[in-house]
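Whiteboard transcription, Tuesday session. T.W. wrote the C-alpha cells on the left side:
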C-alpha cells in the first residue's frame, strides 16, 4: 500500500452560495463585516503561512516551542491509540510534533480550504507512513461531523493556533461545547490560547512592518472579486489592526479611503470615506479566564503550559469519563 492510498478524502465543504450570502448580509450591516473564515482560500492560506513566519507574529513560534517542550507530558496524560481530530487543521503544521508520542489510531484533519487540506494531508502521509488519515473538507463553524469511516478510539481534539480567539466569548463556549459533544465522555481537548499582554506587542503582531497581514486582510476583498464577481478597488482600502483593551481583543478592519460604491454581481454597497468593514476579532485570554470558559462548556482542566515570556498558553482539558 502506498502512502496516498491511506488518505481518505471527504468533501463536505461550503458552497459559493453560502460565501455570497454571508458577504452580502455582512456588507449590508453597519458597521459592515465579513466572517474571518473566508480569509482562507488558497492565496489567503499561503499568506497566513507567511504571517506565522514574521518576527512580530509570536503565537505560532511560541506554541510550537511549548508543544515540543511538553509533547511527552501531553502523551503521558492522554495515552496512545486515540483518535486525533483537528478542526481547522488545514495545514497539518503542528500535529507532527505530537504524533510520535501520541501514536494515534488515526488522524482526522477538518478544514474549509480544500486544496490546502489535500496537499497537507499528502505531505503528512509521506512523513508518517504508519498514520491513517481521514481528511474532511468541512466548515467546522457550521458542523463538526466525524467521517463515518474513521476508527474508534478515545477522541482527542487538537485546536492549536488560538483560533478560538475568532469567536466572541459566548461563541467560544458554544464551540467548546460542540467539541465536548464530538469527543464525548473521557475525550480530551488540547487547545492553544493566546494570552493578554502589552498592547504594543499585540498590535505589531497584527500590523507587521512588511505588510503581510495587510495583504492577508485585503485578500478577502480580492477573493470576493475573484469568486463572487466583485469590483473592490484594493488601492482604496486600508488595513487596520487595533487592540480593544475593554473587550480583550485585536480587531482587524478594512477602512475605505474614499467615498465609494462597490458592486458584487447585481448588488451594490455604498461606503463613506473612513467607513470600515470589520474582518476579524482575535480574543486574548488569561489562563483563569479561559479555564472559566472551558468549564462552562463542560470541560475539566487537566494541565496548562505557559512559556517563560508569558506570551502563549496550551491547555489540556477533558470531559468527565
Ligand atoms: C488563525 C485566527 C489564530 O487571530 O492570530 C493572524 C489569524 N489574523 N493575523 C489570529 C490572523 C491576522 C489568527 N488565527
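and on the right, the sequence the group agreed on:
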Amino acid at each position: 500500500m502506498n502512502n496516498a492510498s491511506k488518505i481518505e478524502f471527504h468533501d463536505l465543504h461550503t458552497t459559493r452560495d453560502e460565501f455570497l450570502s454571508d458577504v452580502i448580509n455582512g456588507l449590508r450591516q453597519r458597521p459592515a463585516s465579513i466572517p474571518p473564515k473566508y480569509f482562507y482560500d488558497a492565496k489567503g492560506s499561503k499568506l497566513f503561512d507567511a504571517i506565522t513566519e514574521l518576527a512580530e507574529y509570536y503565537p505560532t513560534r511560541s506554541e510550537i516551542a511549548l508543544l515540543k517542550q511538553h509533547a511527552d507530558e501531553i502523551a503521558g496524560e492522554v495515552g496512545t491509540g486515540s483518535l486525533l481530530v483537528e478542526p481547522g487543521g488545514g495545514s497539518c503544521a503542528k500535529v507532527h510534533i505530537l504524533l510520535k508520542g501520541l501514536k494515534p489510531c488515526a488522524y482526522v484533519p477538518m478544514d474549509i480550504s480544500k486544496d490546502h487540506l489535500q496537499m497537507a494531508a499528502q505531505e503528512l502521509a509521506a512523513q508518517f507512513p504508519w498514520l491513517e488519515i481521514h481528511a474532511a473538507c468541512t466548515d467546522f463553524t457550521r458542523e463538526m461531523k466525524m467521517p463515518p469511516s474513521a476508527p474508534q478510539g478515545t477522541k482527542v481534539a487538537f485546536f492549536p493556533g488560538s483560533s478560538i480567539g475568532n469567536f466572541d466569548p459566548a461563541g467560544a463556549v458554544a464551540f467548546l461545547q460542540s467539541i465536548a459533544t464530538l469527543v464525548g465522555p473521557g475525550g480530551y481537548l488540547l487547545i492553544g490560547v493566546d494570552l493578554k499582554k502589552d498592547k504594543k506587542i499585540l498590535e505589531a503582531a497584527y500590523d507587521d512592518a512588511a505588510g503581510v497581514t495587510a495583504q492577508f486582510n485585503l485578500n478577502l476583498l480580492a477573493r470576493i472579486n475573484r469568486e463572487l464577481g466583485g469590483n473592490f478597488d484594493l488601492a482604496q482600502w486600508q488595513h487596520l489592526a487595533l487592540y480593544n483593551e475593554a473587550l480583550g481583543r485585536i480587531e482587524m478592519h478594512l477602512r475605505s479611503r474614499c467615498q465609494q460604491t462597490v458592486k458584487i454581481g447585481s448588488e451594490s454597497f455604498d461606503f463613506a470615506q473612513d467607513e470600515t468593514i470589520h474582518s476579524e476579532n482575535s480574543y486574548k485570554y488569561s489562563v483563569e479566564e479561559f479555564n472559566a470558559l472551558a468549564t462552562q462548556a463542560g470541560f475539566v482542566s487537566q494541565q496548562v503550559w505557559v512559556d517563560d515570556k508569558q506570551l502563549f498558553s496550551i491547555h489540556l482539558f477533558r470531559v468527565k469519563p
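Someone added at the bottom: The pocket of N,N,N-trimethyl-histidine is lined by residues 51, 59, 161-163, 165-166, 206, 213, 216, 280, 282 (CB under 6 Å).
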